[in-house]
Backbone:
């Protein structure tokens, strides 16, 4: 949900950027929202809920560390963390499928397809 935070935190600064850039940021935030809904639904089906387990502490730290700079936020989140996620997702899908959790694997495939478009 880092792009949602980015839109809220840097909204006034984004107003000074090109319309296409602002549109792209909104589209990515909407996709992230749909990813959250997809993953939360699956977690609930498995007897958990979003936020009940610590996940991706490096991403949380990066969001906190870049809260004062739009440029730093975009560079760190997009280039580092999303890049790492795209790189690791094939392994995650294989592991989920090997465990027999094809439903979760399908959710991750949907997210993977969306994330690759961000580059």
Residues:
């Amino acid at each position: 949900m880092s792009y949602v935070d980015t839109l809220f935190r840097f909204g006034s600064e984004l107003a000074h950027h090109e319309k296409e850039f602002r549109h792209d940021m909104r589209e990515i935030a909407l996709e992230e929202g749909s990813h959250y809904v997809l993953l939360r639904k699956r977690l609930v089906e498995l007897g958990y809920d979003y936020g009940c387990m610590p996940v991706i502490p490096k991403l949380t730290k990066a969001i906190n560390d870049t809260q004062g700079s739009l440029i730093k936020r975009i560079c760190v989140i997009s280039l580092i963390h999303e890049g790492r996620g795209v790189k690791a997702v094939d392994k995650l899908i294989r592991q989920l499928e090997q465990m027999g959790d094809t439903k979760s694997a399908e959710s991750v495939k949907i997210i993977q397809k969306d994330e690759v478009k961000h580059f």
